Request: fold
Amino acid sequence: MLSGPAAFGGLTLRRVLRTSLWSRQSISSSMTYLILLCVNYNLCYACGQAEYKIGDEHCTAWTSTSCAPCTDSTFNDQPSGREQCSPCTVCDEGKISLQFMKECTHYSDTQCGVLEGHYCINPYMGGCRAANKHTACKPGQFIKQPGTEYTDTVCEDCSDNSYSDGSSMPCKPHTE
Reply:
């Protein structure tokens, strides 16, 4: 339990409770003050966005977490206790199916988009981290559903007496 001159702005707990006995409102106010003091007394914060934790000590009731800002080409998009910021994604890093859309900041990762003729296989925060080329239908198949930014092309076999080179939507009937 808290006591001493530091508690309640120089008042001791005993004195606050003794003077509060005369009124229910005072007791209620004193208890609220006591609860708020206890809650605020032990808050411990993680590092914020664009920061990472430095040092080995975690925060306690008497010390705070030490944080440092993210450096170039790194980010942290949410408060955390991480010991380093994440590296920014590079859209063309061996992934020729992606294109640059939005610059990396210390608060958010790079946003990459999908190149024409590809679909996203790893969506992330409004962008894409990896994509594949749309499936090409084979001769004897038609495009049942064209590919989109997030779905692959759907191919289906032509029925008897029809054909397709794989690039058309409907199959064409054989002519005699």
Summary: The longest helix spans residues 24-41. Helices lie at 13-20, 24-41. The two ends are 98 Å apart (CA to CA). Residues 1-24, 30-42 have pLDDT under 50 and may be disordered.
